[in-house]
Design a protein that fits this description.
66% helix
Length: 149
């Protein structure tokens, strides 16, 4: 059975015929309880669960960043390595946590990303002297459309 919604409220999958209409409706709907989404985790009996989950996820995200960072450092001639991988994973995680509505996403480096980066680095290194411009261009060209969808 479908749940009837008021005339003024936009459903989660309704087409609004306005630019970013669904996102604006979601923000308006969640604005009054957004602060409690972040603060309820640290009140009452939730503190221990929250702290243990945070520590678990910190180390679960840190260990692959270190492992893949070492591989990036070896395969890309030291151009980028552990520190850059940790920083990019942290920045992506913070932005994702603040702006997204989907909690499950692989934000750090993975095997296919490593293979792609190593191949691009070696290919570009044989043709030109520096590889950062290619890495920047490929990130802008291939990353921008996926972030807009």
């Amino acid at each position: 059975m479908a749940v009837a919604m008021p005339e003024t409220e936009v459903g989660p999958l309704d087409y609004t015929r306005k630019f970013a209409g669904g996102i604006r409706a979601d923000i308006a709907r969640r604005a009054k309880i957004y602060k409690s989404d972040w603060t309820d985790a640290f009140t009452g009996d939730n503190t221990m669960k929250t702290t243990s989950s945070i520590l678990f996820l910190f180390f679960a995200c840190l260990s692959p960043a270190i492992a893949f960072g070492l591989l990036f450092q070896d395969m890309c001639g030291g151009s980028f390595g552990v520190v850059e991988t940790i920083m990019s994973s942290a920045l992506a995680g913070i932005i994702w946590a603040l702006l997204s509505g989907q909690p499950l996403c692989i934000l750090g480096a993975t095997g296919p990303v490593l293979a792609y980066t190593a191949v691009c680095y070696n290919l570009y290194k044989t043709m030109f002297a520096r590889s950062f411009s290619l890495h920047c261009i490929s990130g802008l060209v291939f990353g921008s459309p996926s972030s807009l969808s």
